[in-house]
Amino acid sequence: MATVRGNPTAWDSFYGTGRWQRLRRHQLRVHPLCKFCLSRAIVTVANVVDHVTRHRGDWNAFVTGELQSLCDLCHKSTKRQIELWGYRNDIGLDGLPTDPKHPFNRAR
Ligand SMILES: [Zn+2]
Hints:
mainly alpha, two-stranded antiparallel ribbon, globular, binds zinc ion
C-alpha cells in the first residue's frame, strides 16, 4: 500500500482501487517516459503516476485530476520542489530557467 513520506494517510486506500489501477496503467501506456526528464532532453522510463494538482484526499480530484508520468527521482525531488516553491529550477540549453512559473520568467 502506498504511503506518503513514511506516514499512512487517509487516502492510501485510493491507490488500491481498480479505478486507480486502470488510470495508472493507461497513463503509463500513453506516456511511458518521465515528463520532467524529457523536458531536460533525458529519456527515462516513468514508474510513478503523479497528480499534477494535489488531490488532498478528494476522491473526485483523485480520479479526474490531470496526471503525469514521472520517474522515481523526479517524483521525489523536482515534484517536491514544485510543491514547496511553486516552480521548477531547471535550466535549459539556452541557460535560462525552463519553467514559465520561475520568477525569472515571470519578471520578463
Ligand atoms: Zn525523471
